[in-house]
RNA sequence: GUGGUUGUAGCUCAGUUGGUUAGAGCAUCAGAUUGUGGUUCUGAGGGUCGCCGGUUCGAACCCGGUCAUCCACCCCA
């Protein structure tokens, strides 16, 4: 057998039948909760104009955007144009002469682009969900792929904090249905801004958040070292230390942060927003939320509440994230449309569920029943019964050839088909069949008229 | 982008200081077994040792490069 030399681009994967079924289970669970909460579906193209994406994800993000080479760069008439363009690329600049399109990096920016383009037609608040792949030129590693799915739900055209409440509960409900134990972390950019304000000015905010975000990974001393490196003085670092030492229940944490930053305008605003959201949960089944003031999140368009979901008991980064943005569409010339949204990382959710063995066993069941093929006349009878069952909505198939039991059993076992239906010469004569449940080994004789009423579950 | 790990049969992995024809388990296929599988036994097929080059009388093994993988960093879902 010649060994195939074909391969896949780095960081991409094929999904076999079993994997697709398990992924579909996650997708359909998320989709049905999205629909339940009143979100409407949207799809956008895999590629966007490069300028739509550039500059929206920070300097690091720009590097991770997959760019598409223009067609026709071998056109001799334009050779000089392309040579000049290539020179610019070598200097780290982009030029439309070489590349003007790119694969989408997330679903939020394309959505903002869509809203900006269609604001006249949309009725606000507009609630949309979107389930599509995105691409990032990251170096692959655990839980990181170059092609992966995001499932986003966003509400635009409303500043109401009720949206945050709903999205939090939507997170909780979805992970409850999937059986994934999670912690939903909440913070507010205004609180981070307040911290920056009292520690050297708002322009230091990114430096500060990047450093404190690493707290649980590198420890408080290294965070302080990093802050020092980024130009903060001892007083400021002392304040941040106090900020990072906030502990206890959600209420206790808020109390401590109030003492620290409650006197600033943005600090007070952020705190009251958080309190509003948390207050709503008192009258409900409390979702697993945890206020975490070290949560920062990289995307710099967030302005208010920020979310992040961590799977409990699994070695995996965040499996979901989101936040509020005041003016995303402003980037596309349509100011004044605020929004808030969340995202599910399906590929990571899959990895967690696989690791923790959380997929229900019946997810893998394709066909519910297999008719054994035991001869020409038997096979013909089985085929007509097969069609009856299919018309009644039972997923079923007939073994493709008359062969020994051993093979037919093994086929059923391998395809995880729970029931086999045996019609041999004896059953043909008696007008009945044997139905065997392979999971329990039990079998019984059923008349052919009754077969269609049998419960294949 | 930086650093490291690994790459031998479909899968998981052995393979001595470099030495004849590269092995095992599982899986597959065939038979023992003509209508009740999963156990057991027997047998068979399946490898350019990731790829390219170098050192050597001789390379799966040493060296260089390259590709892929996994892991960590950066960043992120």
TrEMBL record:
* All residue ranges annotated as the Aminoacyl-transfer RNA synthetases class-II family profile domain in the record: 10-361
Q: What is catalyzed by this enzyme? A: tRNA(His) + L-histidine + ATP = L-histidyl-tRNA(His) + AMP + diphosphate + H(+)
- Return the PROSITE patterns for the record: AA_TRNA_LIGASE_II
This one is known as Histidine--tRNA ligase
**Family in the record:** Belongs to the class-II aminoacyl-tRNA synthetase family.
This entry's Enzyme Commission designation comes to 6.1.1.21
GO MF term set: histidine-tRNA ligase activity
Kindly list the places in or outside the cell where this protein is found, as annotated in its UniProt entry.
Answer: Cytoplasm
> Which keywords has UniProt assigned to this entry?
Aminoacyl-tRNA synthetase, ATP-binding, Cytoplasm, Ligase, Nucleotide-binding, Protein biosynthesis
Looking up Pfam families in the UniProt record yields:
HGTP_anticodon, tRNA-synt_His
How it assembles, according to the record, is: Homodimer.
